[in-house]
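Entry 14: structure prediction run for Lipoprotein. Input pasted below.
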Amino acid sequence: MKRFGKVIKLLLLFSAALALFVLAGCGNQSSSDKTVKIGIMASDDRIWKPLAKKLKKQGIDLKLVEFTDYNTPNKALTQGEVDINAFQNYHFMNDWNKANKGNIVSIGDTYIAPQRIYSKSIKSVKELKDGAKVAIPSDSTNEDRGLRVLEQAGLIKLKKASLHTTKDIIENKKNLKITPLDAAQTAHSLSDVSMAVVNNDIAEDSGLKPSSAIYVEKITKASKPYVNFIATTKDKKNNATYKKVVKAYQTKFIENKLKEIYKGSTLPAWNYKF
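Run finished. Output tokens:
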């Protein structure tokens, strides 16, 4: 009987240990569900770090994964290396999905950042000489946008197209030598070209001050495709934790952070009237 009692005790101890193990496992799973990896451009960490602290109080551990180019964040998203990302606009996403048979979707708008023209040699686009070299971003979305900015500035005219390339230039009175470059290289090209159209985050990463731009893209109703947003894959678009991240972003707190950090160069898009 004593031996039988010892067996019963051992079985009870084993059962208790097993129960604790299962509970611990469930606890870890719950914690894992609250961890969200987000892919961002490096310069945007000044917005996302304060937001991560806010989300921590809501039980969400936001892990920032920083990128310095536009080629990898969507690949990282589709390959599961990040859960969400926040770097692209609608034009870029639609073009990327089409080219890569992707299933990336928006789950909430963040900001809109006008493209700017920078130069080290001139102080106005009117000072451009005939045959001057001009750099614009080379990815299809930003090449289109860069060309539209040059048209806004009165330097070229474009034929109608959904996504313009340099082949769509129908008037170029100054015979400008317009060269598409990887977006990350446009700022670095300023020593070799008369001017460059540079995306806001690339300018930030390169130390270019928005106030030093010689031309700023005008934001109009036609600018809606250039609104940035938080993205995930289609199968995760209804994830409750991701929606909490969006809700936390679209607040007065972040609106004030955008004003504080970007000095008016970046506008909150979730309540912007296009």
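Notes: The two ends are 83 Å apart (CA to CA). Will compare against the previous run tomorrow.
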